[in-house]
């Protein structure tokens, strides 16, 4: 297998979380949810504007807080354009390790990103915080670019075929 010398390919993606406070009318607590859980949330990895990333990202492992049952969640075989994601409920914020596994043709080792799960309004200015307080959903999204440096010929074809 030959590498494409001097070639760098970037692929944008998004990772992050969405969280909602339980509320009897807008976000009712599902049956059997533990008493102390205050929020429902999801953590995800996906393409920008839900574009497909499955041609380079094959699998994502989310490592949640140890207080959560089965904290290591592995998501694969998602439909093209669908997010890799985990839904949960809970009461606290914590750091999530998000490990991306690349398609076999890439020859790339998995890479870990870190995301702080946000349940509560945050922001640097009062305006930002107030806007979040008004919003039904606390979004914390990070836009990233995956760099493939001198990809193998076969992987380059995968990355660049329409
Ligand atoms: C804190 N450092 O103390 C954090 C830890 C852990 C959050 C937060 C448990 C959910 C479950 C849950 O929400 N843990 O029991 O399934 O704030």
Automatic annotation (TrEMBL):
- Name its cellular compartments: Nucleus
Question: A GO CC term?
Answer: chromatin
Domain spans labelled YEATS: 3-162
Extract one GO BP annotation from the record. Answer: regulation of DNA-templated transcription
**Highest taxon, organism lineage:** Eukaryota
Question: Which keywords label this protein?
Answer: Coiled coil, Nucleus, Transcription, Transcription regulation
Chief location: nucleus
Question: What is the name of the protein in this document?
Answer: Protein AF-9 homolog
């Amino acid at each position: 297998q030959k590498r494409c010398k001097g070639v760098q390919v970037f692929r944008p993606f998004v990772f992050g979380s969405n969280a909602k406070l339980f509320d009897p009318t807008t976000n009712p607590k599902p049956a059997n949810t533990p008493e102390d859980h205050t929020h429902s949330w999801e953590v995800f990895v996906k393409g920008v504007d839900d574009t497909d990333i499955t041609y380079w990202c094959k699998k994502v492992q989310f490592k949640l807080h140890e207080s959560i049952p089965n904290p290591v969640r592995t998501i694969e075989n998602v439909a093209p354009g669908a997010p890799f994601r985990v839904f949960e409920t809970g009461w606290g914020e914590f750091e999530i390790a998000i490990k991306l596994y690349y398609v076999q043709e890439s020859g790339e080792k998995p890479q870990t990103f870190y995301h702080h799960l946000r349940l509560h309004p945050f922001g640097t200015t009062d305006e930002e915080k107030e806007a979040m307080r008004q919003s039904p959903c606390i979004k914390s999204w990070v836009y990233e670019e995956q760099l493939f440096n001198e990809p193998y010929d076969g992987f380059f074809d995968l990355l660049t075929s329409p």
